[in-house]
Amino acid sequence: MQHPEPAERIAQSLLAVTLSAASAVEFGDWETAGQLLRRREQLLTQLEACDDLDSAVSTLEAVQSAEKDLESLIERTTFEAVEGMQSTRAFREARRAYRPSAGGGIFDQAG
């Protein structure tokens, strides 16, 4: 019969996966980040089954801090992506507005 992994070992793996996910997000590797976040869910499920959580308190506090950093990074990256999309949309609309027509561009017509 296989013995369950100690909570400290699972918590260390959880910390490593969380930090790796943050690194993947920072480098824009969303596929890897998604895989790591799914792995985090598996580790959290394993951790919930542990009886010896007291032995992993300090590591779990580090995990909590890393999770906050990851969440902040994801929010910032998402905000930047949305801003970029809005900027691109505004550029396209401006380009359409000033596109030369058959009678010349808006600036040609004015002067």
What does this structure look like?
By secondary structure, the chain is an all-alpha fold. The protein has one domain (about 5-100). Helices cover about 75% and strands about 0% of the residues. The chain has helices at about 5-25, 30-50, 55-95, 105-110. Helix 1 packs parallel to helix 3 (about 55-95). It starts with 6 loop residues before the first helix and ends with a helix. The mean pLDDT is about 85.
Helix count, DSSP H or I runs of 4 or more residues: 4
Largest sheet: none
Domains, number = 1
- Span between termini: 87 Å
List strands and helices in order, with pairings.
Elements (H helix, E strand, L loop, with lengths): L6 H20 L3 H19 L8 H41 L8 H5 L1
Short description:
With 111 residues, this protein is mainly α. It is 77% helix and 0% strand.
Q: Which terms would index this structure?
A:
4 helices; 111 residues; mainly alpha
